Amino acid sequence: MKEGLEKGKRDIYIEMIKGRYHQECREWIKGLSEKQLKLINKYIFEEDEFEVFKQRIDNSN
Predict the structure, then answer these.
(1) DSSP summary character for residue 44
(2) Model pLDDT for residues 2-32, shown as the tens digit of each residue
């Protein structure tokens, strides 16, 4: 059940990023830590450019 919840959460993040930035990011999301996933909610509304958003997430670990 926990595994299903994790997959569902990652799928939601993927859809959020697709909607906001129009970017395919499934592979990138799969490689993020739990800490980085939580930061998506914070940074997605702060950054207008996908690359800046992605760098902030990548550099947070």
Answers:
(1) T
(2) 677 778 899 999 999 999 999 999 999 999 9
Check residue 33 and report its DSSP letter. -
Say what the pTM is.
0.84
Contacts of 53 (CB under 8 A, 6+ apart): 21, 43, 44, 46, 47
* Domain boundary assignment for the chain: 2-58
Give the whole-angstrom CA distance, residue 60 versus residue 1. Answer: 28
Question: Which residues lie below 8 Å from residue 10, measured CB to CB, with a gap of 6+?
Answer: 29, 30, 37
Answer whether 30's CB lies under 8 Å from 38's CB: no
CB 10 within 8 A of CB 30: yes
